Amino acid sequence: MTETFGGSVGFDHLLVRSDAPLQGPGTLAFGGSVIAAVVPDTGEAGRPGNRLVLPALSNVHDHGRGLRTLAFGALDDALEIWLTRLGLEPVADPYLRAVVAFGRMAEGGIGIINHCHNTQNVAQLEAEAVAVKRAANAVGVRVAFAVPLFGANPVTYGDPAALYAGLPEGDADALRRRAAAFPAFNEQLAVAESLFELADSLFTVQYGPVAPQWVDEATLRSVAERSAIHGRRIHMHLLETRLQREWADATYPRGLVQHLDEIGLLSPRLTVAHGTHLTSAECELLAERGVSISVNTSSNLRLRSGIAPVADFVASGVKFGLGLDGMAFDDDEDGLREMRLLWHLQRGFGIADVMNRERLLQAVFFDGRDAILGPGSAVPLGPGAPADLMIVNTARMNRDVIADRTGILDLLLTRATKADVDELWVDGRQIVRNGTLASLPLAALEDEFTSRARHAARAVDWPALDRIAGAYRQYYGCGCHAGRSAMPGICTTDP
Ligand SMILES: [Zn+2]
Questions:
Q1: What is the mean pLDDT of residues 388-412?
Q2: How confident is the model at residue 491 (pLDDT cuts 50, 70, 90)?
């Protein structure tokens, strides 16, 4: 594979910062892994003007599964139902699994990724982390690896007795066995501590308490303390679904987010994913504490979670970026389409200007980077900035446009897709050229990975999965997770 390190990148249009007009034409000269100079072009009139240089995209929340969930039978549905099929993912080589995921993202211009690791074998977590790091380095992207910490409420939010009561004994036993298989939290924390040693300039490690409902109180407190002592980042799902909100309200009558604040978890070192069901008061508290949010628009639609209250994010000033969560709208890891979806859903309807263009660009191209790498990581694209660049070719978008009628950013926010990404540079290294991963032969790796996955896929007991999904619908439909069922078992006896 041919690659290019260093050198320079010419541009016709350059997004230096979110609140300034595009610059150009000119050239960005690199000094190693940073931009050394921005040199304006003089003369050379009539050049085609197709090169738009933007900061590399940041994917603030993803899981790095090479096999998309739809491909292995976890069909789009409410998160709580979808989760009952997530275990259908065939066991894969952890390097291939990650390299395929990261490579696809890179081809869409994503250069910075918050990887919430979903382990396939909890006893092999350390080996999996090493493999993910190798994959990130091979593709050439920056990855923050969130070490998963989980095991509380392993079956349902709240007491699963009513769920078990609604299932044949064999199905209930299988769920009980899975619930008993989680290692103790102190063992998980010990593994996490050892993984921080993997960090290098492109690969960082974070605490990954998966979500408040899935982590015990002592561990959340311990993570908050360790984060403060070592200055390490934390990445956690938060209030993704309505059912989680109901569980949280029943469990923490004074407020879950308030509680997280009291135990010291809310800080500029924390990024939360989704926040779909945050209240405006909670957004204000998160903003005050400097917490960042990953808005996962496509995932929230496909998993029926809802639409994030971005108007409250904007009003409170809480920082946010975008996350694909392994669930891009067209299942194609397209960060530019994701940006447009966020824009159209959240800019406001009618003449209500809820989020303006600058706020969107700030979130997507700057605040998202901070949410992954830490405050202060995103700087204007100028001398001293990391050479993490995406080059979008505007020719396709521009084909029918009459000169001087439509701006480049109008095109970007209306038409841009992954197909328009020509190049990606990370840390001064070119990893995508002509829209194709240059660091590795991605198509061949995808073929190899997919054929291995098909081979590894085991027979599925679909009737059992349907029974289990039905029992979950019954359990949550009755409000068992929020303490609404009078006693365990009652709500499942009379469907
Ligand atoms: Zn997620």
A1: 96
A2: low
**What is the pLDDT, as a whole number, of residue 1?**
40
Distance 273 CA to ligand 1 centre (A): 7
Q: Are strands 26-31 and 389-393 parallel, antiparallel or unpaired?
A: unpaired
Q: How far is the CA of 390 from the centre of ligand 1 (A)?
A: 25
Distance 87 CA to ligand 1 centre (A): 15
Q: How far apart are the CA of 118 and the centre of ligand 1, in A?
A: 9
Residue predicted with more confidence, 495 or 123:
123
Is 141:111 a contact under the CB 8 Å cutoff?
yes
Inter-residue contact 467 to 84 (CB < 8 Å) = no
Distance of CA 294 from the midpoint of ligand 1 (Å): 10
Average of per-residue pLDDT values in the chain: 94
CA of 22 to the centre of ligand 1 (A): 34
Residue 230 has pLDDT above 70, yes or no: yes
Domains in the chain with CATH codes: 4-54+386-437 (2.30.40.10), 55-382+443-448 (3.20.20.140)
Distance CA 421, CA 256 (A): 41
Name the residue with higher pLDDT: 488 or 99. 99
CB within 8 Å of 210: residues ≥ 6 apart = 116, 148, 149, 150, 236, 237
**pLDDT for the residue 251:** 95
C-alpha of residue 424 to centroid of ligand 1, in Å: 25
Ligand 1 center to 116 CA (angstroms): 7
pLDDT category of residue 494 using cuts at 50, 70 and 90: very low
List helix spans (H) across 108-181.
125-139, 161-165, 169-180
* Cα 465 to middle of ligand 1, angstroms: 22
How far apart are the CA of 115 and the centre of ligand 1, in A?
9
pLDDT at 483: 81
Cα-to-centroid distance, 324 and ligand 1 (Å): 9
